[in-house]
Amino acid sequence: MSPFGGWGLLSAFLALLCCTGSGEEAFEVRTWPEQLMVESGESQVINCSTTCTQPNTGGLETTLHKTLLAEQDQWKLYEVFNISQDTDVICHFTCSGKQESKSLNISVFHPPKQVLLKLWPTLVAVGRSFTIQCRVPSVAPLEGLTVTLLHGSEIVYSQTFVGTTLSPQEAMVTHNTTAHREDNRHNFSCRAEMDLRSRGGDLIHRVSDPQALDVYEPAQDNQVVAIITVVSVLLFLFVTSVLLCFVFGQQWHQRRTGTYGVQAAWRRLRWAYRA
Ligand SMILES: *[C@@H]1O[C@H](CO)[C@@H](O)[C@H](O)[C@H]1NC(C)=O
Ligand SMILES: *[C@@H]1O[C@H](CO)[C@@H](O)[C@H](O)[C@H]1NC(C)=O
Ligand SMILES: *[C@@H]1O[C@H](CO)[C@@H](O)[C@H](O)[C@H]1NC(C)=O
Ligand SMILES: *[C@@H]1O[C@H](CO)[C@@H](O)[C@H](O)[C@H]1NC(C)=O
Ligand SMILES: *[C@@H]1O[C@H](CO)[C@@H](O)[C@H](O)[C@H]1NC(C)=O
User: Fold this and answer.
1) Which of 3.90.226.10, 2.60.40.10, 2.60.40.420, 2.120.10.30 would CATH assign to domain 24-108?
2) Among all ligands shown, which has an atom nearest to the Cα of 87?
3) Are 168 and 140 in contact (CB under 8 A)?
4) Which of 43, 82, 83, 106 has most ligand 2 atoms within 8 Å of CB, for mutation?
5) Which ligand ends up closest to the CA of 103?
6) With b meaning 16 or more CB within 10 Å and e meaning fewer, what string describes 91-122?
7) Superfamily of domain 116-216 in the CATH hierarchy
8) Closest residue to atom 5 of ligand 1, CA basis
9) Residue 263 binned pLDDT confidence (cut-offs 50, 70, 90)
10) 73 ligand 3 Cβ < 6 A
11) What does the pLDDT look like over 225-262, one tens digit per residue?
């Protein structure tokens, strides 16, 4: 037996193994992209293709509104519209009476559209505590969302969310910290980062408007106290001296006019009034 005969036998055996009982050619169905993450309400182009050289039929099955953009024997290009919730679309082809399909899972995300930063109080003494709060309304998935509180370009606090909630919800980070003298110099801000790279998406980030913190020296407090004290002491001295002057003046007057000087003066005044 020639070696070629052996090969022939082997390949016949392999062919039998591969397509047992059917006699149809094996083929694959693919989707491009293979995984899909879309922003809520977006549309997306999907390429549905097969390795079968002469498929009978093929298409994309979905509850979403779709249109066929282009096609050739081995692929069909669709656009699906207004994807508003997680869904599966199925790409299928029939080749020599046999059907193969491939499902594509579409996940919808709600990116951070607003990042709201709040500082309170906004006027704080050095060494006193203040609160930084950042809210990111209506985001999904929350998992993998990182909210970072920044002072200038320096990170004050950072939190990465965990969990598998799919419905959009608010992400909130609250951090208490102590006011430093330097806090006056830079604005505070908050950055929200949604990392969808592991799901076939992008890294999306958005930053809040800057917020300033007014930091004052507690020494100013002491100055105010000192001023109030000095003014009080001066006022006291003034009032005391006026009183003393009055008292000494009375005594001096009494010595000159006698004890009933005031009464005599009063009587004289009344007579003067009647007359
Ligand atoms: C669709 O995918 C097939 C297979 O990967 C490829 O040959 C074809 O060029 C793609 N069509 C478009 C319009 O990208
Ligand atoms: C998109 O889908 C949402 C929810 O299914 C619907 O409320 C909205 O009207 C749709 N928008 C368009 C432009 O079709
Ligand atoms: C898509 O989701 C279905 C169930 O919803 C699951 O069985 C399938 O494995 C998923 N496919 C991929 C590629 O993640
Ligand atoms: C921050 O401080 C406020 C009061 O100053 C307190 O009510 C709140 O629980 C604190 N928050 C954290 C996260 O420590
Ligand atoms: C802080 O932000 C305000 C408003 O955006 C801006 O006018 C100001 O220059 C910023 N200050 C600093 C120190 O960056």
Assistant:
1) 2.60.40.10
2) 3
3) yes
4) 82
5) 3
6) bbbbbeeeebebebebbbbbbbeebebebeee
7) Immunoglobulins (2.60.40.10)
8) 49
9) low
10) no
11) 777 888 888 888 888 888 887 787 888 777 766 555 56
